[in-house]
Hints:
Blueprint: E1 8-12, H1 16-29, H2 41-48, E2 58-67, E3 70-80, H3 81-87, E4 91-99, H4 103-119, E5 124-127, E6 129-130, E7 136-137, E8 139-142, H5 158-165, E9 169-180, H6 187-196, E10 200-204, H7 210-225, H8 236-249, E11 255-260, E12 263-272, H9 274-278, H10 289-300, E13 304-312, H11 320-339, E14 344-351, H12 355-363, E15 367-378
Parallel strand pairs: 4-5, 13-14
Antiparallel strand pairs: 1-2, 2-3, 3-4, 5-15, 6-7, 8-15, 9-14, 9-15, 10-11, 11-12, 12-13
Helix pairs in contact: 1-2, 6-11, 7-8
Amino acid sequence: MRAALEPIRIELINGSRDLRRFIRVPWSIYVDDPAWIPPLLLERREQFSRRHPYFAHARCCFWLAYRGMKPVGRISAQIDVLHEAQHRDATGFFGLLEAEDEAETFHALLSTAETWLRDQGMVRIRGPFNLSINQECGLLVEGYDTPPMIMMGHARPYYAGRLAAEGYQGVKDLLAYHVVTHFTPPDLMRAVLSRAAGAVRIRPMRRSRLSEEINILQEIYEDAWSANWGFIPFTKEEFRHLGHSLRLLVEDEYVQIAEVDGVPVAMIVAFPNVNEAISDLNGRLCPFGWLKLLWRLKVKHPKTARVALMGVRKRFQGTALGTALAFMLIDAVRGHGIRRGVQAVELSWVLEDNMPMRNMLAMIGGVPYKRYRIYEKALR
């Protein structure tokens, strides 16, 4: 017979000590999970800093669940002004959900987030978003046995059942595709590339003109993605924040821009899989973690990478040239990855109903190997 558990207590985080405990919760949840990779503590602290550009357009609360003095769970609730301006649907969000495998803990955390959002006038709750759809999003529901790529989430298998028990239903699935870099281009891909070769110029990011390049990437992204489910535009500050990450982590050739008649019309952004390089650092860069990370990124280089952003302007979508642009961008990043020793790439996330992209990835041998789910619940 199981010993009685201490009752659950939910506390709003307040101050740096609480924030440290909040960030550290996953260490206890995944202590025996070989697929989990501890995130860098420095990066997590930066994500929650009020200086992060996300907080300029969002209101958030963060809570910890305690049994006695031990944190056993956490959750956030957020209202995004940009989402409301775009969709006008009174939807609030939850995220950063981690908890022990106890129904009481999940109920206490989720009901706390629901109450706060309801009091703010929201009529539904959707998530998980950590913290935005433009950051980590979705709950892992398939693919638990492999580590997450950079800026992708991980979860315990019991999470999905606990959410369902609290009345949450899946509203959208997001897929992560695994593609080996040394594939033989199919005949259609070769034909498309050959026909478009004279009309399209593919070039890498120009680091010397980074600010201009970041503006180009944002303009293409917002045109390409604006009709997608759940779309929220990046602010200029958020994209500049992305530019800072590109400057630190990414070689120019991992960012490719396609031009037609000298005009940028499509782009792709890939990252070396930093998670591969930090897997044994336990979240710490001191005293020697910095040296290990730099050597693994710049000298040894990860064997995996992730394509995190890709977009073709709307006027080319659904056309033969649009297909060629996508193929050419993937091929350019693939070529650089091969030269750096990359053996496999994840393309994520891809909406489950984005059949043109899914069909193209299948054509080059892509296999959906992880599935993430967005959940929703009415707030009555």
